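Quick one from the shared queue. A colleague (R.T.) flagged ABC transporter permease as missing a structural entry in our internal table.

Convert sequence to structure tokens.
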Amino acid sequence: MLSDILLLFRIRMTRKVNGFFYYLKKLPLIGRLLKESCYAAVNLKGVLSVFSFLVDVLMNLLKNLLYLFVVIAVPLINLQKGANDVQIRNGFLFGFVLLSLVAGSISNSKLLTADDETFILSRQMHMAARRCLCSRSWYSYSMNAIGLFLACLLLSFMFSFPFWYAFMAGFGYLGSHQCMDMLQMRRFQRKNSFYLQANTWKLLIPLGSLILLYALYWLNVDFSFTPWLFCIFALVCAAAIIPYLRFESSYHAYSELLTCLLMDNHEILQLDSSRMKQMEVALDEKSYTSEELQYRTEKTGYALLNELFFRRHKHLIYKPVRFRLAVMTALWLAGTCLLIVLKDDMKLTKDILELLPPFVFLSYILSISQRVCKAMFMNCDVSLLHYSYYRSREAVLVNFRLRLKKLCYYNLLLIMVLCLYMNSTVVLVGLPYTLSTLLLFDFALLCLAVFFSVHYLFVYYIFQPYNEQFDMKNPFMSILNGLVYLFCYFCMQLEGSLLFVSGVLAATLLYIPIALLLVYRLAPKTFHLK
């Protein structure tokens, strides 16, 4: 087993180093200095492999540290503001058990995942099914366990729990996932199926666990039992590693399991990266009805083009909009009923403007602009940008205006429903408000909807990052979108007030005209194929 894990390590590091050389050769100046012989430099690649492994460990640490801090620690501190250090520590340990040891083990199996690496080991290197699956799962789980151990070790100073809890967290993670894998393998051997492996469950289990955790934090549940729960649960999971080793060596359905995983992912494994990106926004032509294919309208020119585009991309627009509306409605009904029932036991003294910071991030999540812009390029602009008339100033600006109107329509629709729900909740629950603060809250959210519509379209037209192979050639789009995400997330950490609302309004009302002016001046020059 150890030799297989080391072999897998060498394969992963070699692929990363080769990829590093490949992208380095594409740089304007440095790329010319590198020769093809660099791929055969064994000693250099050995040094870079060690460096790459250390970077992997560091990134694993940062990923787990970010997960534990952002997903568990920050909401805990914000939702239990009056809690002391012991209560914060207990709440953190409970969140770790629920999300990492329970929900994570059910919905995030490394054994039951087939990727291109699985294909290389099993089909190109002819590795036995047992060696292939076990080495991959052990390597992935061990790396994650090390990352969790280091992250918990650092957080032990913040939450004042014993450092040996970090060891228990790492081994508990490893054992819980392997215990769940053992149950899944038994299920497959007996019934040729798996527990809760549909994509719906993989989404609902983590999401439901998060909602449950945050609700318990918000209700100030007493977690004094958690240290015992954490220790017992982690020790039981760690002890499960021993029976898993026995089960692993005696299991006889590895070949059938590997074949099933490869068959389920066969089409994905055959696709290159550009085709994978295209599939995210691909048209499902079989879903069109005869009425849609024979659609008639009085619109002409670019208005007709964009009307057809949005109608034929309904699965990218209408379905996400309906899904967001359904989720909002369900959460609003549940939340409002809960607040009405508990309002006598709660001190509801917050003004409506104090609730705005998390709604900035919620507005970001509700926006459909990013995916629609991607579909615009891959299913429309990539073909039409070959023609000079489509790159003319008039065509670029007319298309931008028509697309912006559509994006604003859908984003404003979602935000208007959100405003309606919030206003109803404020009135029904009895939160303190005035008509002016309520209108100001709604106006700020509507400005954010327009902001996200303008921003993504502005970045797309100014930086147009894709080439004909759908590779991203301009990194500024990702950088700017990442900064917007960080800004929206950072807003959740701020206190809501009239000053905060004024800042949001000033930022959006200043950004929107500047972005539109830049599009008017620069888009005809920048909107072209790379």
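Residues 280-526 form one domain.
The chain has 22 helices and no strands.
Added to the table.
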